[in-house]
Design brief:
By secondary structure, the protein is α+β, with helices and mostly antiparallel strands. It folds into two domains: about 1-150 and about 350-400, 2-Layer Sandwich (Uridine Diphospho-n-acetylenolpyruvylglucosamine Reductase, domain 2); about 160-345 and about 410-505, Orthogonal Bundle (Cytochrome p450), CATH 1.10.630.10. The chain contains 17 helices and eleven strands. The strands form three sheets. The chain has a five-stranded mixed β-sheet. A three-stranded mixed β-sheet has the order 1-7-8, with no helix packed on it. The chain has a three-stranded antiparallel β-sheet with strand order 5-11-10. Helix 9 packs across helix 17 (about 495-505). The chain is globular, with a radius of gyration of 23 Å. The relative contact order is 0.16. Mean pLDDT is about 80; it is low at about 1-65 and about 475-485. Bound molecules: protoporphyrin IX containing FE.
């Protein structure tokens, strides 16, 4: 460990099994910017309104001008950013300064141990974005920041006692979910989505399956019919789409969905997540429950979508993994863990904010600095890449960081595994002769510094028959064609929202 700088507390503690490798040096421009060969990175000034409003800093960046730093924004290379992580590790050790948005600097944690230790040290690192120096000094406007870097009154952005107050009802509600019944629901919904395209012999497994499945399942766990799930899925799609004006409107509609959900469950409680959070002894207000329910939807959606998508991509493109899964050497659960090591649905997670000056590896982190959790870099850390090269399989190893660690660790990991495993199994069982419809090298990744997944996954298969509906199926198949018009005459907020959405579809 290097000599401690004045006012800096060494971090991780001195018994940590790693050492700083080199004195901290300002990173020179690295040529492995996340730009695929033959393409140009968007210049910092390119594009229209940026999701994050910044003013140029008149202060000294801790190290160099932000423009000199490797960029995490701009197009995602189709091969991912693996070579960037490796080069940064080579040059800077376990922590590197990066540019998160034009002019916005952050530390990226590259080492497995450093990531884990930061996640497990809430006394040194806050999850509350309002503690970010860029926000305090007015260079980042949280109200205009992209959703992952904004602030909401929910558990994800809370620390300490407030975090516990908000998290306990969520954990309690999730513990009351009947997992056997949930498994049947997930399979029914997955089968309904497959029924909508199985006769075509072709489909996009992201848009037609992996994207809608988690939203539909959560909607059921909130105790609402599938039609509401399709509405929520549509609105969520608009939020993540390209039309900023429609996205703003969709955000308001999603707030109405959750406010309406909570109002309905307050007056008529049921056996569902929203009702259980409302009745918890911590006494969350309706407004607070609506925010926690909205978070569960947003936190559960994209990672589950891309866990399914990345798993199907792995099965379609990695012969060794496909063979191991086909002859039952690799169960579907082990397959998911393998993908969470090797093709993480989140490559980077925002963020933690230093509560005091601290040294990590060779980096002098100042109070208020942002630290990005590097899932993908951590999983490529040579310290944990055991045996992968020989077999191609990382099986049975749940020590990946994909569900987080410390106080904010995902409270829904069993549910997430259930949704992803059931979805992958349904596709595997029902789509005979499944193969990619395009050369896999042409597949494009979602352009995000955070998410790691495919925008589309076109496949072909032998056309099949939609499955028979069980006689006692309480719900119509979730495909849009099988939908019925709203049967309820409910005039509450949720009912009016549903009627509005339904009118747009006619
Ligand atoms: C494969 C799917 C999933 C992955 C990889 C995943 C991963 C994570 C991670 C890494 C965190 C920690 C965030 C942080 O430390 O800043 C987290 C938190 C959270 N996740 Fe998940 N998640 C998944 C699915 C779900 C689902 C389905 C739900 C809801 C039913 C959910 C609800 C939450 C909530 C509420 C939190 C915040 C917990 C807190 O701040 O205390 N997640 N998740």
């Amino acid at each position: 460990m290097h000599a401690q700088a004045v006012g800096h507390r060494p971090f991780p503690p001195s018994d940590a099994p790693f050492r700083a490798r080199a004195p901290f040096a300002c990173p020179r421009p690295v040529h492995a910017h996340p730009v695929p060969e033959g393409r140009e990175a968007a210049p910092a000034s390119a594009g229209t309104a940026h999701p994050m409003t910044t003013r140029s800093s008149d202060g000294e960046a801790a190290c160099g001008r932000p423009a000199d730093l490797p960029r995490l924004y701009g197009p995602t290379p189709d091969t991912g950013r693996d070579s960037l992580w490796d080069e940064l590790r080579e040059r800077h050790g376990p922590v590197a300064a990066v540019e998160l948005e034009p002019g916005v600097r952050a530390w990226l944690l590259l080492g497995y141990r450093e990531n884990l230790t930061v996640l497990q040290s809430p006394h040194l690192f806050s999850r509350d974005t309002r503690r970010w120096r860029e926000v305090i000094e007015g260079r980042v406007d949280l109200s205009a920041a992209r959703p992952t870097l904004s602030w909401r009154p929910n558990v994800l952005y809370a620390d300490d006692a407030e975090h516990t107050r908000l998290r306990t009802p969520i954990v309690s509600a999730l513990s009351r979910v009947d997992m056997a019944a949930a498994a049947r629901d997930v399979r029914r919904i997955a089968d309904g989505l497959i029924d909508a395209f199985i006769a075509d012999g072709e489909a996009d497994l992201i848009g037609g399956f992996a994207d809608p499945l988690p939203v539909l399942v959560l909607n059921r766990l909130y105790g609402l019919p599938d039609g509401y799930g399709h509405m929520l899925g549509d609105l969520t799609g608009v939020v993540f789409g390209d039309d900023a004006r429609r996205a703003e409107d969709a955000v308001v509609r999603i707030q109405q969905y959750f406010a309406g959900l909570v109002a309905r469950k307050r007056s008529a409680p049921g056996h569902d997540l929203a009702s259980w959070m409302l009745e918890h002894a911590n006494g969350l207000t309706d407004h607070e429950v609506a925010h926690q329910a909205a978070l569960m939807n947003s936190a559960g959606h994209l990672p589950t979508t891309h866990l399914i998508g990345n798993t199907m991509h792995t099965l379609l493109t990695d012969e060794r993994i496909r063979a191991a899964h086909a002859d039952a050497r690799l169960s579907v659960r082990e397959l998911l863990d393998h993908v969470m090591w090797t093709d993480t649905p989140f490559q980077v997670l925002p963020a933690r904010f230093a509560l005091q000056d601290v040294r990590i590896g060779a980096a002098e982190v100042r109070a208020g600095d942002a630290l990005l959790i590097g899932f993908d870099p951590a999983h490529r850390d040579p310290a944990v890449r055991r045996g992968r090269e020989e077999t191609g399989v990382v099986s049975g190893a749940r020590a990946h960081l994909m569900f987080g660690a410390g106080p904010h660790a995902c409270p829904a990991r069993e549910l997430a595994r259930l949704i992803a495993a059931t979805g992958v199994s349904a596709l595997h069982e029902r789509l005979a002769g499944l193969r990619p419809a395009v050369d896999p090298v042409l597949l494009r990744r979602v352009p995000s510094p955070f998410v790691r997944g495919l925008a589309v996954l076109p496949v072909e298969f032998t056309p099949g028959e939609p499955g028979p509906r069980p006689a006692a199926d309480p719900e119509p198949a979730p495909g849009p064609d099988a939908e019925e018009a709203p049967r309820e005459e409910s005039d509450d907020l949720l009912g009016r929202l549903f009627a509005w959405w339904w009118s747009l579809r006619r």
